[in-house]
């Protein structure tokens, strides 16, 4: 939705030299306006129009993001906006292989803890949720409540997202490498990995032929649905011509003009992104849901 | 040891002609012998049934002259009759050695081996020693005896495969062994093998009762030997599951045929069944020693089953199998420490897999009923109550939220529609429940008024759901391998809610509906073989009869109280 007030907020948000006080006031204006618009329209989409632009600007700013996320995820009225901001940040950092560092010096500790737990509950990208948790440990090193929350948050990451968490903690780009929480977490994951690696491969537990067939159908449907939705939302797809080939990875494309044709060879490159689903999604989704509900309520 | 017992039973069941004398050359070739002559019917063999040569690793060649004798060896077998051993041995070291060997062979050292599917009787030991001395005194000759105790370890080591089978089912056993990579295919072919082994020829109908009995025992021995082969090959092929499943089928199938023939009380039959049970227990213990560490590692399990429905199927199958093992051990003469170890493993697997208290299929309640029975049998009512409590909480959540209810069709596709894709309407496959009546029965036997009250509180959410409490007819014992359907051996009662307290629930659970078999109608009643009902429930996927809980609790009282502590109780998952 196009709204002059939001446009003004957007320009203010992307202006340089914004301090925390002014930034917080702008975020309050944005939240107020978004609440107002959502109140008028039940189907209001926080990701679209100038609201989406504003959220993009907030997600891009280290200072504004931490203030906005901690406030919005801990205030009931602003939770939809907080969720939309979390989504922006998660999409931006979905394939990031190191935990994102956040500046939490302008954030209240209780709000930071609530936001940290709710990031997990919302299944944020691991680089965001783990980065927030470790940033909290760095910002409030002597706090008992942060230490307690950190244990819970690290347990969640280690149990539910072991592969991603290990990659993030072991990353040479991580700025948290010297934190005890990071060192201990990585050690636990390496021990778990070692336990896993010594287990023999068991034919006894393999899927039956029927299961393999059903499973491959489910995966194919899932992939097709992902592609269908991606194509539906793709702006890039509106301005490009799409060609599907069965065999070649280096086709020659013939283009006929007036009386002549040209050919050009195009090499195709593959692009894929692997996202680790919480472990409970593959085993006991209800348990995963219960864990996330507990984290969401965990004030 | 059980494997050798099965093999001994099999060897003892072989006939000398066409069977033992056909098997021996196979054994010799597997041992590295060159077989120079084989038994021939109607041809004078000058005492020697088989001649072979063996060259050891240092290049020394030796001749082996075999005399085959069927069964145990008594005095008469040694000295009298046309087939007596002593005259055959003398003929071998005289006539055969002088006239039927080449000059080069005569120069080799020679062993005269008496092969028997039995043992030397006490009455014949002196005569036998004399025979050994006599042969040993002949220049170039030495004496050996391969009785059943010597043959079985050699056969186990060298020719334990489908070549041992000389008649029906050989190709099916071969196919089962060849398909060991795929558990389902191997199990399917092994069942065909068992059926081929146990087929009763039409000619048997006119045979005497003694002949029918003898032939039945032979069929039992052959099928049991095939199971032993499947276990041994499963080890080398890295798949123990077919043997673990097929043992259940075999035990039930042997019992079913014994029921048909009226031989369930026959001691020889029970000895064979005992040996098969021994092999089955070994297979299960070996199986779980291999898979248990993985069953307690969620990350590893999800790699095998990357979908919650398939993962749940694996967990319930394995938990049910482990509970079955514990129940079988409760009837076996094993140290309580082994049972306690298995009980703790069962509890740990449940704790490591939260899904164990949230069955996705109604039929997975069968596996849970086995868990309850196994823990009750160990006197571990505390763990039973914890598992029950966990299940009831999950059930309440599912009923109140009207989502992810146990699927009554027990079909994977329906489970996926309800529990994974969410395509099915909430109660589309929740019209019948055998799980919920089972929970009521268990709460009754545990005398757990709290759990029973909790269950009664769920009644308003069960409108339109048929609560089916299952009872078997006496034909249950004949189900395996028959054309009977599960429906044909079932006599259910649709219960109208729950009783007012646990005692009343127990009474109601034990009260038989019309058509159900009374305990005394079952041949296994009153014997340790009542445990076969547990295997039947797990394998054929029918509920555990309510009366079995009563028997289990009674049996538990005969054991020492278990050493149950807090760490040994399920908790984390529930």
Question: Can you walk through the features of this model?
Answer:
The complex is a heterodimer of chains A (299) and B (574). By secondary structure, chain A is mainly alpha-helical. Among the domains of chain A are: 1-92, no CATH class; 96-198, no CATH class. Helix content of chain A is 64%, strand content 3%. Chain A has 14 helices and two strands; from the N terminus they run H-H-H-H-H-H-H-H-H-H-H-H-E-E-H-H. Chain A has helices at 4-14, 20-40, 49-60, 62-74, 79-92, 109-121, 126-139, 144-160, 162-170, 180-198, 209-233, 236-239, 279-283, 285-297; strands at residues 252-256, 261-265. Chain A has a two-stranded antiparallel ribbon with strand order 1-2. Chain A is globular, with a radius of gyration of 23 Å. The two termini of chain A are 34 Å apart. The mean pLDDT of chain A is 90. With 574 residues, chain B is an alpha/beta fold. Chain B has three domains: 2-159, 3-Layer(aba) Sandwich (Restriction Endonuclease); 160-295; 296-566, no CATH class. In chain B, helix 19 packs across helix 21 (502-510). Chain B is elongated. In chain B, 47% of the residues are buried. Chains A and B meet through helix 10, helix 11, helix 13 and helix 14 of A and helix 12, helix 13, helix 14 and helix 18 of B.
How would you summarize the topology of this molecule?
The complex is a heterodimer of chains A (299) and B (574).
Chain A: H1 4-14, H2 20-40, H3 49-60, H4 62-74, H5 79-92, H6 109-121, H7 126-139, H8 144-160, H9 162-170, H10 180-198, H11 209-233, H12 236-239, E1 252-256, E2 261-265, H13 279-283, H14 285-297
Antiparallel strand pairs in A: 1-2
Helix pairs in contact in A: 1-2, 1-3, 2-4, 3-5, 4-5, 4-6, 6-7, 6-8, 6-14, 7-8, 8-9, 8-10, 9-10
Chain B: H1 2-13, H2 16-30, E1 34-37, E2 50-55, E3 61-69, H3 75-79, H4 85-99, H5 103-106, E4 109-116, H6 125-137, E5 141-146, H7 148-158, H8 170-178, H9 183-198, H10 209-237, H11 241-261, H12 267-295, H13 298-304, H14 308-329, H15 336-352, H16 364-377, H17 381-401, H18 412-419, E6 432-433, H19 435-445, H20 449-457, E7 466-469, E8 493-495, H21 502-510, H22 532-540, H23 546-556
Parallel strand pairs in B: 3-4, 4-5, 6-7
Antiparallel strand pairs in B: 1-2, 2-3, 7-8
């Amino acid at each position: 939705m196009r709204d002059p007030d939001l446009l003004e907020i957007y320009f203010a948000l992307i202006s340089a030299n914004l301090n925390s006080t002014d930034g917080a006031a702008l975020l309050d204006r944005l939240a107020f306006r978004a609440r107002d618009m959502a109140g008028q329209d039940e189907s209001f989409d926080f990701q679209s129009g100038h609201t989406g632009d504003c959220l993009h600007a907030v997600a891009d700013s280290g200072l504004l993001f931490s203030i906005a996320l901690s406030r919005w995820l801990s205030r009931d009225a602003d939770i939809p906006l907080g969720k939309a901001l979390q989504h922006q940040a998660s999409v931006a950092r979905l394939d990031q292989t190191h935990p994102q560092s956040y500046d939490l010096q302008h954030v209240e500790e209780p709000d930071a803890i609530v936001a940290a737990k709710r990031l997990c509950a919302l299944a944020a990208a691991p680089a965001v949720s783990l980065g927030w948790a470790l940033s909290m440990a760095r910002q409030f090193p002597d706090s008992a409540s942060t230490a307690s929350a950190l244990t819970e948050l690290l347990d969640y990451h280690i149990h539910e997202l072991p592969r991603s968490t290990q990659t993030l903690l072991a990353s040479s780009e991580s700025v948290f490498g010297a934190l005890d929480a990071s060192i201990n977490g990585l050690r636990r994951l390496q021990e778990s990995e070692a336990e896993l690696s010594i287990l023999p491969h068991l034919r006894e537990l393999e899927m039956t032929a029927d299961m393999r067939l059903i499973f491959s159908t489910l995966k194919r449907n899932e992939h097709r649905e992902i592609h269908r939705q991606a194509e539906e939302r793709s702006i890039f797809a509106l301005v490009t011509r799409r060609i599907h080939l069965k065999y070649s990875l280096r086709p020659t494309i013939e283009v006929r003009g007036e009386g002549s044709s040209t050919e050009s060879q195009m090499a195709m490159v593959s692009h894929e992104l692997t996202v680790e689903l919480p472990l409970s999604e593959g085993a006991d989704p209800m348990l995963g849901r219960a864990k996330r509900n507990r984290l969401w309520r965990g004030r | 040891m059980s494997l050798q017992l099965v093999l001994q039973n099999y060897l003892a069941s072989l006939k000398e002609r066409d069977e033992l004398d056909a098997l021996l050359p196979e054994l010799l070739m597997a041992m590295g012998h060159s077989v120079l002559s084989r038994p021939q019917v109607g041809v004078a063999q000058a005492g020697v049934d088989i001649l072979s040569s063996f060259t050891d690793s240092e290049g020394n060649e030796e001749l082996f002259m075999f005399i085959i004798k069927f069964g145990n060896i008594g005095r008469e077998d040694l000295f009298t009759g046309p087939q007596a051993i002593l005259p055959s041995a003398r003929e071998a070291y005289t006539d055969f050695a002088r006239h039927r060997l080449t000059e080069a062979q005569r120069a080799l050292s020679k062993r005269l081996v008496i092969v028997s599917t039995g043992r030397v009787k006490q009455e014949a030991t002196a005569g036998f020693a004399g025979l050994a001395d006599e042969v040993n005194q002949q220049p170039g000759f030495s004496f050996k005896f391969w009785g059943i105790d010597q043959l079985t370890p050699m056969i186990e080591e060298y020719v334990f495969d489908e070549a041992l089978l000389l008649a029906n089912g050989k190709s099916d056993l071969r196919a089962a062994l060849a398909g060991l990579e795929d558990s389902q295919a191997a199990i399917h072919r092994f069942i065909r093998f068992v059926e081929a082994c146990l087929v009763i020829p039409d000619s048997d109908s006119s045979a005497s009762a003694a002949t029918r009995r003898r032939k039945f025992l032979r069929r039992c021995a052959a099928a049991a030997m095939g199971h032993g082969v499947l276990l041994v090959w499963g080890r080398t092929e890295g798949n123990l599951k077919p043997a673990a499943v097929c043992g259940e089928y075999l035990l039930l199938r042997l019992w079913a045929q014994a029921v048909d023939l009226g031989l369930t009380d026959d001691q020889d039959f029970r000895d064979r069944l005992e040996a098969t049970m021994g092999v089955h227990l070994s297979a299960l213990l070996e199986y779980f020693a291999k898979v248990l560490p993985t069953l307690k590692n969620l990350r590893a399990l999800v790699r095998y089953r990357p979908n919650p429905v398939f993962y749940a199927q694996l967990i319930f199958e394995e938990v049910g199998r482990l509970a079955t093992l514990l129940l079988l051990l409760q009837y076996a003469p094993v140290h309580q420490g082994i049972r306690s170890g298995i009980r703790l493993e069962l509890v740990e697997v449940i704790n490591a897999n939260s899904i164990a208290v949230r069955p996705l299929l109604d039929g997975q309640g069968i596996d849970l009923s086995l868990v309850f029975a196994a823990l009750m049998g160990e006197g571990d009512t505390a763990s039973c109550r914890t598992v029950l409590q966990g299940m009831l909480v999950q059930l309440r959540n599912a009923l109140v939220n009207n989502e992810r209810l146990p699927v009554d069709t027990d079909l994977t596709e329906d489970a996926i529609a309800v529990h994974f894709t969410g395509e099915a309407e909430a109660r589309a496959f929740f019209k019948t429940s055998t799980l919920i009546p089972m929970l009521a029965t268990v709460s009754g036997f545990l005398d757990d008024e709290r759990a029973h009250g909790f269950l009664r509180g769920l009644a308003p959410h069960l409108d339109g759901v048929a609560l089916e409490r299952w009872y078997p007819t006496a034909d249950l014992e004949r189900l395996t391998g028959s054309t009977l359907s599960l429906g044909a051996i079932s006599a259910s009662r649709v219960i109208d809610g729950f009783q007012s307290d646990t005692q009343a629930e127990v009474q109601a659970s034990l009260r038989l509906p019309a058509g159900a078999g009374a305990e005394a109608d079952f041949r296994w009643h009153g014997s340790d073989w009542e445990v076969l009902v547990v295997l039947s429930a797990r394998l054929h996927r029918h509920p555990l009869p309510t009366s079995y809980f009563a028997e289990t609790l009674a049996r538990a009282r005969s054991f020492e109280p278990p050493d149950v502590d807090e760490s040994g109780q399920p908790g984390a998952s529930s």
